[in-house]
Design goal:
- The structure holds two protein chains of two kinds.
- Chain A folds into two domains: 123 residues, Rossmann fold (3-Layer(aba) Sandwich); 154 residues, 3-Layer(aba) Sandwich (Rossmann fold).
- Chain A is 33% helix and 22% strand.
- Chain A has nine helices and 14 strands.
- In chain A, α3 packs parallel to α4, α6 packs parallel to α7 and α7 packs parallel to α8.
- The two termini of chain A are 21 Å apart.
- Chain B is an alpha+beta fold.
- Chain B has three domains: 151 residues, ATP-grasp fold, B domain (D-amino Acid Aminotransferase, Chain A, domain 1, 2-Layer Sandwich), CATH 3.30.470.20; 73 residues, Dna Ligase, domain 1; 146 residues, 3-Layer(aba) Sandwich (Rossmann fold).
- Chain B starts with a helix and ends in a 22-residue tail after the last helix.
- The longest helix of chain B has 17 residues.
- In chain B, the strands form five sheets. In chain B, strands 7, 8, 9, 10, 11 and 12 form a six-stranded antiparallel β-sheet that branches. Chain B has a four-stranded antiparallel β-sheet with strand order 1-6-2-3, with helices on one face.
- Chain B is elongated, with a radius of gyration of 25 Å.
- Chain B has 13 helices and 18 strands.
- Classes of the chains: A alpha/beta, B alpha+beta.
- At the A-B interface, α4 and α5 of A face α9 of B.
Chain lengths: 290, 396
């Protein structure tokens, strides 16, 4: 079992350029069913053995793709995401980094009235280990099992997945939701999906400074949590007013501090790790204490 | 990217928002001449990219041209929160009856723009939010439709704007929203918005901060970008494609991925040390990038050790190792290096680094402890630099 993506996911790659094609190859090698790609002017050709189309609608008509992963440059992200949402794909994942906030505000306004789920932008993607990888993460750090995992980071997600895997804690689905201030699937929504997934026995929530998505996720778990959770917040030593790499990772005045997030999780009964290395032990404790 | 007040006001004026007559100047003589031209009294205002200029003595009223000259002389070269004043704006003084706050920014939780209006003007909106939260009225326009007339009217009613000014304030709020959306702003703010003695409205101050990701389509405004002395290294890093933030400690940090680098800074703090910087080399870093990153980190004289933390995914451990070896071949770094390589080709990378003058550790925690030890051990909290802390009413 898993959320959002699995064996039945048929993936369209929007933007089969150099990067898109390279990652399409890695996804295929992982076992993902990549059925189509789009690239302007290349319709009718094949790349990495995948048929290329001019439009998303054409690709869906020919291949029954039900999900897409977007690799287009930032200036084209809004258009690509809206095209995917317009075609009512179940799942749209935007890897693209550097999208203007005004563009994402428009995309989200359309998304809210649609039936699609959007993950990202500026994210590593999502993976249901052993079934489907829709992202740029190294598949070997992940393994199948009962842990649901949501993270705003990229590399830190791989690091923590690797720690979980080495500790024998496989994952149902890992959702890398992205580091931008406006994203399609904010932390509380991702946590809700994992909380409602019967196969997920515990949830690992990796947040970072900026915004108050972690606080809202903690509130949600306090009210509706069906299973234990463990959290980690990156950026506890970051000074206010400085953007730490991710566009969304900034403490603005009293908003978005690590202290507030840690306090919110702790008051909801969710232990917070001081370092990624502490996460596996905390998860095991949480599972044992159910 | 931040604009100066006079630049932001020019943008507001072109959107039809009333602003006081004013002139940018850079010398006391020009300030005196501007004062005579504009008509007295005038206000002489420091143009620096921080809030709280008034409290710092960077804004002064002048009743004569001589006074304007004297104020300009005093303000130019002044240090405001670590920034040196090099530009002034001389503006005809308003006849103020009342001050309002009006601003548009991003509400991250709602994923909508938020327009905020308050009859408590002149204070940072965060202070008002803390002291009189019920005195801030908010509206959340749909970005596909813009800020609609009924929403603007409701905002003015909710904020208890005097009846005589409601239509005018609503008009300015809609225009400010158009500026916000049209310039790809993260913050567009008029604080204070004056109601003058004759009942007319005037933008007393203006703040405009643009989305760096959208500068490619804001070519005219992007030209106004100024790089402060404290931002030069950050700008150089940006040009090379990675993000760098200077901090106060003495352990230099290089890593791949923003979250991992933040986690590394935290690991250094857990070990009792203080990071000198944040540096994310991004994905797939090659030899030349690693070399450039190391040079930027070492250009900070406070750095006493460098911690390189790489978790290889797309980035390969052997490529990173080659980059480090290239640096070591050219010159021996002035401080010890600690490296932690994990993930893709980490084993190959560690092999390449065998015998090189650096310390290798298996985990992030161990590497952080070693880097802190080599920097001279756990120390006390370093002094905060001026200019850190609140930089305005950003609520995004």
């Amino acid at each position: 079992m898993s959320v959002l993506l699995g064996k039945k996911t048929r993936v369209l790659v929007q933007g089969m350029g150099r990067e898109g094609s390279a990652h399409a190859r890695r996804m295929i090698d992982y076992g993902t069913s990549v059925v189509a790609g789009t690239a302007p002017g290349a319709g009718g050709t094949k790349r990495e053995g995948v048929p290329i189309f001019e439009t998303v609608a054409q690709a869906i008509a020919a291949t029954e793709a039900n999900a897409s992963i977007i690799f287009v440059p930032a200036a084209g992200l809004m258009d690509a995401a809206l095209e995917a949402i317009d075609s009512e794909l179940d799942l749209v994942i935007a890897i693209t980094e550097g999208a203007p906030v005004q563009d994402m505000l428009k995309v989200v306004a359309v998304l809210e009235t649609s039936r699609s789920t959007l993950i990202g932008p500026n994210c590593p993607g999502a993976i249901t280990p052993g079934e489907c990888k829709m992202g740029i993460m190294p598949g070997e750090n992940f393994s199948a099992g009962p842990i649901g995992f949501v993270s705003r980071s990229g590399t830190l997600t791989y690091e923590i997945a690797d720690l979980l895997t080495k500790a024998g804690l496989g994952q149902t689905t890992c959702l890398g939701i992205g580091g931008d201030p406006v994203i399609g699937l904010p932390t509380p929504d991702a946590v809700r999906l994992l909380n409602e997934d019967p196969a997920t026995e515990a949830i690992v929530i990796v947040g970072e400074i900026g915004g108050s998505a972690e606080e809202r996720a903690a509130e949600y778990m306090r009210a509706f949590g069906k299973k234990p959770a463990v959290a980690f917040i990156a950026g506890r030593s970051a000074p206010p007013g400085k953007r730490m790499g991710h566009a969304g990772a900034i403490v603005s005045g009293s908003q978005g501090t690590a202290e507030s997030k840690v306090a919110a999780f702790e008051s909801a009964g969710i232990p917070v790790a001081n370092a990624p290395s502490e996460i596996p032990a905390l998860v095991k404790e949480a599972l044992a204490g159910r | 990217m931040k604009l100066h007040e006079f630049q932001a006001k020019a943008v507001l004026a072109s959107a039809g928002i009333p602003i006081p007559e004013g002139r940018p100047t850079a010398t006391p003589e020009d300030a005196a001449a501007a004062a005579s031209k504009l008509g007295l009294p005038v206000v002489v205002k420091a143009q620096v990219h921080v809030g709280g200029r008034g409290k710092a003595g960077g804004i002064k009223l002048a009743k004569t041209a001589d006074e304007a000259r004297a104020h300009a002389k005093a303000i130019l070269g002044m240090d405001i929160k670590g920034l040196r004043v090099e530009k002034l704006y001389v503006e005809r003084a308003a006849r103020i009856a009342k001050e309002l706050y009006l601003g548009v920014t991003l509400d991250r939780d709602r994923r909508r723009p938020v327009v905020m209006l308050s009859t408590v003007g002149g204070m940072e909106i965060e202070e008002v939010a803390a002291s009189d939260p019920e005195k801030i009225a908010r509206g959340w326009p749909n970005p596909l439709l813009g800020f609609l007339p009924f929403e603007a009217r409701a905002l003015c009613v909710d904020a208890d704007v005097p009846a005589a000014q409601r239509a005018g304030v609503a008009e300015i709020a809609m225009k400010l929203y158009r500026v916000y959306a049209g310039t790809d702003a993260m913050l567009a703010e008029i604080n204070p918005l004056f109601i003058q003695e004759d009942g007319s409205l005037l933008a007393g101050d203006a703040k405009l901060e643009l989305d760096d990701n959208a500068l490619y389509r804001q070519a005219d405004l992007a030209k106004l970008k100024e790089v402060g002395k404290d931002e030069e290294a950050e700008e150089r890093a940006r040009a090379l494609g990675f993000s760098y933030v200077q901090l106060d400690g003495d352990v230099g940090i290089i890593g791949n991925g923003a979250g991992l680098v933040m986690g590394t800074l935290d690991a250094v703090r857990n070990a009792g040390g203080h990071a000198a910087n944040f540096l994310d080399v991004g994905g797939g870093a090659r030899e030349s990038v690693v070399k450039a990153a190391l040079e930027i980190v070492l250009s900070n004289p406070r750095v006493k050790s460098v911690l390189i933390n790489i978790f290889g995914g797309i980035t390969r451990g052997d490529e990173v190792a080659k980059g480090i070896l290239a640096v070591l071949r050219d010159s021996k770094p002035r401080v010890p290096l600690v490296i932690r390589l994990s993930g893709t080709e980490a084993e190959a990378g560690r092999k390449l680094l065998e015998g090189a003058p650096l310390v290798s550790r298996a985990t992030m925690d161990e590497a952080a402890e070693e880097a802190v030890r080599l920097a001279g051990g756990a120390g006390a909290e370093p002094p905060r630099r001026a200019g850190d802390g609140l930089t305005g009413a950003k609520l995004q």
